[in-house]
Batch of 3 targets.
Target 1
Amino acid sequence: MNNKTVNFEIEKETKNSIRYKEVPDEGQPPIIGSLYVQKWFAGNSKNIQITIEKKD
C-alpha cells in the first residue's frame, strides 16, 4: 500500500486559513490529525481529501 487517501472535515476558521480535522477510517488512528489550508485555496469547501504517496 503506497497510496492512502485521507478525508478531512472543517473544524475551525482562522484569519487567513481553515483548520480541517481528519476523519479516520473506522477503528484506525489518525494519520495526519489537523491540517491548515489557506482560505484563498480552500474557498467554501467543508470537506477535503488528500492523497499521500509513500516513496521508498
Target 2
Amino acid sequence: MQWRNSARRYGLVSILLHWGVALAVFGLFGLGLWMVGLDYYSSWYRRAPELHKGIGILLLLAMLLRLLWRLLSPPPAALASYSALTRRGAALVHGLLYLGLFVLMLSGYLISTADGRAIEVFGWFSVPATLSGVDGQEDLAGTVHRWLAWALVGLAALHALAALKHHFIDRDATLSRMLGRERT
C-alpha cells in the first residue's frame, strides 16, 4: 500500500489518521459520559479527566497533522457517479466534522484551563493556560463541549451510514478507498 493518496484511493497515512481520529473521538465520548457520573470517592475521579484531557490534546495534534497531510497529499477526487448534491453534502459534512472537532477541543481546553492551570499531557509536556478567569468560562465552555460532543457523534454516525449506503446499496468504491482498497 502506498503512503500518499492517489487519484483513486487513500494512502496509508490518511487511512491511519482517519480511523485513529474516529477511534479517539468515540473513545473520548464514552470516557466523557462515564467520568461525569463518577463520585468524589471513586479511584477514577481524578484519573479519568486527566486521561480525557491528555488524549484530547493528542487528538488536537493528530487533527493538525491531518490538515497538514491533506495539503501535502490531497484526497482522491469524488467518484464520477456522485451527483452534485452528494458532492456538496459530503463536503458540508466533512467541513462540519473538522470545524466541530476543533471547536470541541477548544471548548475542552477552555474548561480545563479556566482555573489558570496548564494541562499536563501524560507527563510528556504541558499546555499552558492562555485564557482563563473569564466569568462563567468553565460553565459556558462545558455546555458547548457537551452539546457539541453529542452533535459530532451524531454527525459521525450519519457519515458512517452514508459510507455503508455507498458500499452496500450503491456498490461504489467510497468505503473501499478509505480502507486502502481499489474497487472497480
Target 3
Amino acid sequence: MKGYFAIGAEGISKPMNLGALMRTANAFGASFVFSVNAEDKTKIAYKADTSRTFKTVPYYQWDSIDEMVFPKGLQMVGIELTDDAVELPEFRHPRMAAYVLGPERGSLSEAMVAKCDHVVKIPTKFCINVSLAGALVMYDRIRSMGGWRDRPVMPGGPKAL
C-alpha cells in the first residue's frame, strides 16, 4: 500500500481513549498520532497505551487548530455523524490522509470541519466511542487500500492454494 496516514482527535478528554487510539494506530501502521485542544489530563495517555506507541510513533499535541502543521499534499478527513457526510463504506481514502475524530461527548468544531477536505461518517445509529471509531476508520482504510483479494461469493474465506 502506497501513501501514509495519521489519526487524531479534537477536544479529547479521556486519557484511556487517547491511549487506546494510539495503541490501535500503532497496530494499523499510522505514521503519527495527534490531538488538538486536548484536556490536560490526556497528557498521561501513554499510561493507557500498553504497546508504548510513543516510543515508535510520533505524537503531536496542538493547543489549537491554527497550530496544526501537516505535510504538503496531505488531506484532512473529518469523522463526524452528520447528514451530509459520506458513508465510510462508500469513501475512497486519500493516499496521504489525516483522520480527525471529535471529542467523547461532542462533535468536531465548525472550524475543524472547515479545515477538512472530506467529512465521513460511520454508518451507525448514534455516535460510538472515539477509539472504536478510529479503529473502524483505520480498518476500512487498510481493507480498501491494502490490495486484498475480493471476498468469496460463498460464506467463509478463500480456499488455500
